[in-house]
Amino acid sequence: MQRRTVGVVVAGAAYVALSHWLMTSAPASAWNAVVLIAPMLGAAAVCAWQSAQRVLSLCAGAAIVVLGLRAAFGAPLPVESLYLAQHAGIHLLLALWFGSTLRRGARPLITRVAARVHREMTPQVHRYTRKLTLAWTIYFVGMAIASLLLYASAPFDVWAVFANLLTPLALGAMFGGEHFLRYRLHPEFERVSVMTAIRAYQQPATAPAPLQANPADPSA
Question: Considering the entire predicted model, what is its pTM?
Answer without folding.
Answer: 0.72
